[in-house]
Amino acid sequence: xxxxxxxxxxVSPFFVFFLVHANIVGIGILGxxxxxxxxxxxxxxxxxxxxxxxxxxxxxxxxxxxxxxxxDLFSLHELCFGKWLGKLxxxxxxxxxxxxxxxxxxxxxxxxKQFIFPLMHTWSTTLIIxxxxxxxxxxxxxTVTGVCFLGVVIPAILMLPLFLFPxxxxxxxxxxxxxxxxxxxxxxxxxxxxxxxMGFELVLFYYPFIKRAAHSQKWxxxxxxxxxxxxxxxAIVTFLMxxxxxxxxxxxxxxxxxKIVEIPILQRLEFIVISLWLFVILPNICLNLWGVTRGMxxxxxxxxxxxxLLLLISLAMGSYLLEGTxxxxxxxxxxxxxxxxxxxxxxxxxxxxxxxxxxxxxxARHQTPGPETENAR
Amino acid sequence: MITEWNEFLSIAQDSNDFKHYPLLNExxxxxxSYYQTLIKTELLxxxxxxxxxxxxxxxxxxxxxxxxxxxxxxxxxxxxxDIQTVVSKIMTGYxxxxxxxNLQFFALINLANPTEGLRTDNDTENEFxxxxxxxxxxxxxxxxxxxxxxxxxxxxxxxRELTLGTLSHTRIAVVYLSGITNPQHIETVEQRLxxxxxxxxxxxxxxxQIMSDNSNTPxxxxxxxxxxxxxxxxxxxxxxxxxxxASPYVITGPTTIFDFxxxxxxxxxxxILSSLFRLIRIFGVLFSILMTPAYTAVLxxxxxxxxxxxxxxxxxxxxxxxxxPVLEVLFLELTIEFLxxxxxxxxxxxxxxxxxxxxxxxxxxxxxxxxxxxxxxxIVALSALASFTTPIYKMSNxxxxxxxxxxxxxxxxxxxxxxxxxMFMLTHLLQLKSxxxxxxxxxxxxxRRSFADSFIRSSYSRTARRSAIMRVISQWxxxxxxxxxxxxIDE
Lengths: 377, 491
Description:
The complex is a heterodimer.
Chain A: H1 16-24, H2 32-40, H3 44-67, H4 73-81, H5 83-115, H6 122-138, H7 141-159, H8 183-193, H9 203-206, H10 217-241, H11 244-247, H12 253-258, E1 262-263, E2 266-267, H13 270-300, H14 304-321, H15 325-367
Antiparallel strand pairs in A: 1-2
Helix pairs in contact in A: 1-7, 1-10, 1-13, 2-8, 3-8, 3-10, 3-15, 4-5, 4-15, 5-13, 5-14, 5-15, 6-14, 7-13, 13-14
Chain B: H1 2-12, E1 18-22, E2 30-35, H2 41-57, H3 68-71, E3 77-80, H4 83-91, E4 94-99, E5 106-110, H5 141-151, E6 157-164, E7 170-177, H6 183-194, H7 204-210, E8 223-225, H8 228-236, E9 240-244, E10 250-253, H9 271-300, H10 308-317, H11 325-345, H12 348-368, H13 374-387, H14 393-431, E11 433-434, E12 437-438, H15 480-483
Antiparallel strand pairs in B: 1-2, 2-4, 3-5, 4-5, 6-7, 7-9, 8-10, 9-10, 11-12
Helix pairs in contact in B: 9-13, 9-14, 11-12, 11-13, 11-14
Transmembrane segments (chain B): 279-303, 375-393, 405-430
Family (chain B): Belongs to the GerABKA family.
Organism (chain B): Brevibacillus formosus
């Protein structure tokens, strides 16, 4: 089933940091503040830390399963569910991953429409971005990783300094009294925050493409850690800037906050930020699509370039069909629920199944090459 | 066998410079053939005719060709019966002598005159540096190899020659330092050179394109230079140098994109200064590529970005301009490109005058005629200037090109268009490879150690190690501890 991977297509473990970090941070960081404060108020930064901690646990589970012999999602499913049910489950996960890519693209285009070109038709922007995605994903996993790398480094250099400007208008009192919410509220907010951490689960797809993959676990954790800290930092800056009442009315608080940045020759830097945000969302879409093409190759034997074209057409059609902000928000909400189930329900379930019999099977398979033993079930 | 020779004779004798006659007199048992235009007549007389005549006068009878080496003072005599060798040697300036008794056996005597009509030294006028040696390569491969050998006196310097081009039979030399350069790279180069089937090779730049990893790219994948110091430095870092006869430019590879922003002068100035200059060059490139698209994007779509104080002068200068910004920018960029092309094609003195006329008169006039705004004129002139900071001519041509797609994209999608164009460019760079080495190294793949000599130049004690990107066999160039002794304060 799985084809062996050329050394030249692999990347060093260090890059797992960028793969994880670039895929966690995406469209969510522009507007996560409003959703997380609904339960925990301005203590929600604690919820972000809680959510981050839980993601560390899930990453540990994923790496435990991957290191113990299942190379990727597909062999993991086969070990846990058997051949046919495994394939079916893989297919369901592929749809889920496709949906993530679609929603990121759609959200980005809608932000562009809202902030930069209010009168523009979305199809032309969608089309040129899809072309760019085609060029990147057709370059293979190394190119996608490179885009992840640049998608972290370039925005970090250009944009992080911008978050110092709002401090001029900071109201430290907004944060106090601290710890005024109980644990249930914090957890409820953490539940809302989790959707912003999605993207790390793609390690299930690219794990076989990492050199000395078992050593990459620390980089994966580092990626999650840095992303968590970034979210917390952005959240705190936002809380300092806006009052609770203001925040409730703003859809994209991060962008609104950047509107006040002014440097001698330029103002309204959110135009630059939104344009360059393309660098941040591209890794998300590209890695997701790359994962799906690889999955379709493993499951159905379709060549990756064909399935890529197919996926891009589906994205274009989807963008055309899903017009307007309200359906988009509904779709995002739905996706958030699914991802909650996926992270806290499905991955632990896999983990338990893997501990019950998958691990035994995988070691059996490694020791005696040949048809795997069905009686272990 | 003999028919092959006769075929050659019948073709060659159509040409007036081909000589085929009995040696010395009609009764002589030997026949000589050569191209007059390829040999040095002086050598023919001194090395062949005179000694032969002396023997004749001494009444020595010479009947066998093999006796020639006894009295001829020529080092290079080849005896052969292979017609192909004979023909190819005649084509490179040898004279072929046959005995009338045995027409199938030849003595080939080297009378070639390779340097006739060629210059023997060259100023590095296209890659000028104030400090440092001024001698550059010339059109003769032997002189070029001599120049390299003169600088690196170690038997580790290996020169491998081969001949390419079905019509030109150009001599190509692959030069590298054995024990340093990765053998895999050498193998790749030699393999690619050997598979080249091309008629005429004028210049090493052609080789560059024929053997490059990706022929559909605007970026140069090999660095071509006329400077000796640059080539020597490339060799010591583990790169391979390819020299082609009749070309004053030498190509080196594998390269990364940062190599093209290195000037040899960087190594002659203190490292702090040269690091700053390198950063300025890279900033110059970014400025040159991005400034006019940014103008287009801001003035077309994002006027809100201009602060109030600056808005007035910009609006005033564009008040009478009837075009949308994208056309205005394209018009002025094209003007600059015309000037540049014309300046490059015209003789130096005319070119200079034209530059002044074009730059000042056209610029001023087009502003007054309200074809462009003053501010755009400044931006375009600055970005043209910035693109000249790139030390390698081929790379500055690439930068010249990159601006245009970005201007058009920014005219359609504003800032987003620039981001899309940049991402296309970066993705392309991510995929490029030079001799199998990633073009964007040490950035991607990330090699922390190689940053010492990339977009900055660290001090010599920090660049003792060769860059890991070239995958060299031996890492250390010199012992850095010997160069600098670490001392504590007040010791």
